[in-house]
Fold:
Amino acid sequence: MCQLNLHLLKILDNHQGLIIIDSTRRGKRFPDALTRTVPLWCAAMSALLNLPLGLCTLPSQVSASENAAMAAHLATAILPRLRAAKIKLPARPTKPLRLLWISPSSTSLDRPDPSELEFIPVYCVCVSRVVEESDGYRGDNYVYIQGAADDEKNWAQGLAPELFWSNRAAFLESADACDARHPDPSTHRTGHASHLPGTPLWIGTRGSARRPWVEFTHVINCTNAEDAYDPAPSST
Structure:
């Protein structure tokens, strides 16, 4: 409960719902943030709004004894401090907050009309597919290792959502369209690569990934084409 995230109350009040997306490490279905931290936050905010629904946790992930310990901590430690601080809430939703959990193994995805609910839903979505094997899950053209992308602060080096959204039109072009729009007559390559400012990363077309490499030490092929790394044609 280090961050109050009070701005979320305004979003919940305006849209009558919220989706929180996270991932988790190998062998787990949901991260602790979605099964413990977020439930505590929702229960605390509902109590501050005088709309107590009680602490709602996922039984398959949080045992009854742990739920009781969390509820006791909420009542004796968290809520007294929040009330003593006399926090000014930016919005006051009129319904309590309740969590709904979704993962790749969920069998159904109900989409109830928020106006018909007696609570405001907070959807906790985990995008990690549970993989028990140490070598990960082998797909048609990839190997999925659960948890490999956890904690982007350790690997993103400045690659942020804002950078994607500001360049999304170029990112989402087809490989052929991008190759055709960015010819490079000075080299054997038919494509173009752009440096992501503040990172050691480049994003480019299939053509820019052809050898010989000058700017790159490693290339990740995100296409189904097998010739992305073909050597450049000989100049002789």
Strands lie at 18-22, 97-102, 120-126, 137-138, 143-144, 193-195, 202-204.
